[in-house]
Structure formats: C-alpha cells, structure tokens
C-alpha cells in the first residue's frame, strides 16, 4: 500500500514519514513544498513536491496513493481552510481510499478559537469527500507551551489569560505515533482524541516546571487585554496576537480538558507526561 504524508518537512509530518518507513511494509510518499535536502528522508521514501495552494500539483502527487495522512497546514486560518480543501479535493479526484486527518480536540464552528473553526470546516469537507476518514483530534502540544514556560523561567511568572482552564497537553511524538497507527489500520469508526495522560491547569503546569527546573515559576492569571498588550510589546504579528487570544478563550471554556485512552490504545504506549517533556529541557 502506498501512503502519502502532507507537511513531511515539518516536525509531525516528518516523524510520521520516519515511523511508516521504519515499518518497511508500505511505500511511503513524502509530500513537500520545496525540493528535499540530501538525506532528509529515510531510504525508500519517495519525495513528491506539491504546494498546498496548488490543487493540480497535489492531484499529480497523489497518483497511486491509497492512504493519505493530512497533517494540518499553517498560517492564517482562511489560508489553512483553502489548503485543506485543495488537498481533500485532490485526494477525492485521485481515488484515495482513506484519509487520516490531524484535527483538534476543539474542532467546532462555534468555538472562540480561530483554528478550532478551521478544524470544524475541514472535518465538514472530509465528510463530504466520499473518502473513508479517520480523525485524530489532538490536544494542545506540550512543546508549544514550552515557549511560554521559557519566558516564565526567566521572569518567574507564567502570565497568561487561561483562568482555571485545564489542558490535556500531548507530545508531538505521541501525535505522530497515533497518525502512523491510524494510517496502517482500517478507517476508525469514530474520531480519536489524542491527549496526554492528565489535564492540567496552568497553576499545576507552572508547579511542574518549577519542580523540574528548580527555578521559581508561578502562574499569574491576566486578562485577555493584558495578553494582547504583552504580545504587542514583544513585537508579535497582529494575526498571531488574535490566534493566541482566541486559543486562550477556548482554554477558559474548558474545550481542551478531555483525557482519553485513545493514544495508548492506538500506539500501545502510555502517552508522555508533561513532566518528562519538561525534564528534557
């Protein structure tokens, strides 16, 4: 079976490619936007170049593919939705039988989080595609939050507007393993919720960081307006200020608090705890 992976130059897409190639049971196609670097992919992996914005190139790159792993695009959410539409249309045109799609634990058109709305529209497009679909709804990546924690390590304060919202932080490696497992299995009968082993509020997250790093770190809840001011003072792009602000609105709504056994059930490995990810840093 030939399995293609979008976003193969990224962290999650690249790891999915490596995991599938290591199994040596399937032909693996790495879909990338730019020509591959020497040694970028394992031996036997075929790199095919196609931009998310080019539906014709995507269709050509998906020739002969039975299963597609759709790793989310990036950038402003309107662009992301167009990118996903192009990939899904190209897959349907080429007769791809099974799409394994990376979505979010918060995937809803009524969410305050801009990317959750994008996930919701993408899931609608997948449902209408005519392809069999396996959804991997991942929680927020623990590694993503390390950027906030790194600043808190220097200042002693984790200043964020999450109130008492909890998040079942998941590692990128666990997400990649789950996607690879779904790609080599029959289509899932329901969306898989890819979460970490527990849901933490930011006070608990700060306490873990303080313990692992032996450095004072405390959570200071701030208002959404204060976050905007902090990000603007740091020179953040206006789009990302909006994206971060809307993400914390969804965290306050407890949209990322679910904890499931789906990660372990798919990978036969317990999900990585946040403490272990912090210890690596």
| CATH fold title of the domain at 2-137 and 172-194 and 260-266 | Rossmann fold
Low-confidence stretches are none
CATH fourth-tier homologous superfamily of the domain at 2-137 and 172-194 and 260-266: NAD(P)-binding Rossmann-like Domain
Number of strands: 11
Structural category is alpha/beta
Q: How much helix is in the residues?
A: 40-55%
Distance between the termini: 38 Å
Strand order of the largest sheet: 3-2-1-4-5-6-9
Which CATH C-level class of the domain at 2-137 and 172-194 and 260-266 is it?
Answer: Alpha Beta
- CATH architecture type of the domain at 2-137 and 172-194 and 260-266: 3-Layer(aba) Sandwich
Largest sheet: 7 strands, parallel
Task: Tell me the strand percentage band.
Answer: 15-25%
Outline the structure in words.
This protein is an alpha/beta fold. The protein has a domain at 2-137 and 172-194 and 260-266: Rossmann fold, CATH 3.40.50. The chain is 45% helix and 17% strand. The protein has eleven helices and eleven strands. It has helices at 11-23, 55-61, 77-93, 114-127, 142-155, 172-183, 202-213, 224-233, 238-252, 262-267, 274-280, and strands spanning 2-5, 27-32, 46-49, 67-70, 98-104, 132-138, 157-160, 166-167, 192-194, 200-201, 218-221. It has a seven-stranded parallel sheet with strand order 3-2-1-4-5-6-9, sandwiched between helices. The chain has a two-stranded parallel ribbon with strand order 7-11. It has a two-stranded antiparallel sheet with strand order 8-10.
